[in-house]
Amino acid sequence: MFGPFRATSPLSGGLLWKIPWRLSSPQKARQRKRLRAVDTVVSVVDNALARAGLVTKAVERWKAEMPKEGEMVPKDKYTMFDRKEKRYRKGVHSTCRYLLFQPNPSQL
Q1: Most buried pick, 20, 35, 67, 72, via CB within 10 A?
Q2: pLDDT digits (tens, 9 = 90+) for 56-83
Q3: Can you give the pTM of this predicted structure?
Q4: Secondary structure of 28-51 in the HEC alphabet?
Q5: Residues facing 24 on adjacent strands
Q6: Which helix (H) or strand (E) holds 91?
Q7: Residue among 76, 81, 83 at smallest CA distance from 31
Q8: How many Å apart are CA 81 and CA 52, to the nearest integer?
Q9: Whose CA is closest to 74, among 38, 104, 106?
């Protein structure tokens, strides 16, 4: 059918592909939980290495450069740097979960 009432493509107009621009409260809670889990892993690895009398550059660098979840501002918790975006920030809900954590470029 042609005209103003033609059927739209489900790929471009369906609900499946629409991503809201704002994170919901449960999404934010899950993100904070993921960040706290990362903090826990880093502290467990650091304690285990300290008991063994070892020090690694990677863990020391992470502790020096990366803030913990409680120290982070909301902008850094819920967005990631992306040079292709208009304002250089992209919501974490529209990025791959398996990407490495990218710090805020202003903190480097």
Answers
A1: 35
A2: 999 999 999 999 999 999 999 998 888 8
A3: 0.72
A4: HHHHHHHHHHHHHHHHHHHHHHHH
A5: none
A6: strand 89-91
A7: 76
A8: 36
A9: 104
